[in-house]
Amino acid sequence: MNDSRLAQRYHQGRAWLRRTQPGAMAVRTSVYVTGFLAVVTAAAPAIGAARAAGFALVLPILPTVRPMKVWPTALIVTCVAVWALTGEHSYALAFLLGALLYTHHTSAAQAVTMRTDTYVTPEVVTGWARRTGLVLLAAAAASALVGLLPRLFGRTDAIAYGLAGLAAVVGLGGVLAWLVFRKL
């Protein structure tokens, strides 16, 4: 690259940086932070927290820069695959990873709808945060219920627990449909 093209790219980058808006950049930052935390949460039991953090610094960059492409889904699939292969399957870790991946996915979907120079009103961000909080609260309740079933009923048939989990998923789907219908 010659000096004039390099100077042109530099000035284009500075002009872009001056046009960015805090709300849109906060949404992009949430894509990166939740992606980082999800990778650390999924990989730390297998390879250690320090190695997972190094891996997690790089992996969420593409979903942050290009949220409309396949990158957010690739990060989610990678996290779930790493978590599934580690053997660390506690309810708390599963819920934490699910919450982080859900928040990553919804913030990436929010980032798709706005450019980095878009003015975002506080109502948009608070509405998104409220909706995400309600979904995570419903998921926490369903997860706690499913986690308490063996303590309540003892060690019975695995099919009964599978059916209870299926009922929890259907119930959570009903809550999500209700939230969409109410347009929270």
TrEMBL record:
<keyword id="KW-0812">Transmembrane</keyword>
<feature type="transmembrane region" description="Helical">
    <location>
        <begin position="70"/>
        <end position="86"/>
    </location>
</feature>
<feature type="transmembrane region" description="Helical">
    <location>
        <begin position="159"/>
        <end position="181"/>
    </location>
</feature>
<feature type="transmembrane region" description="Helical">
    <location>
        <begin position="31"/>
        <end position="58"/>
    </location>
</feature>
<protein>
    <submittedName>
        <fullName>Uncharacterized protein</fullName>
    </submittedName>
</protein>
<keyword id="KW-0472">Membrane</keyword>
<keyword id="KW-1133">Transmembrane helix</keyword>
<feature type="transmembrane region" description="Helical">
    <location>
        <begin position="133"/>
        <end position="153"/>
    </location>
</feature>
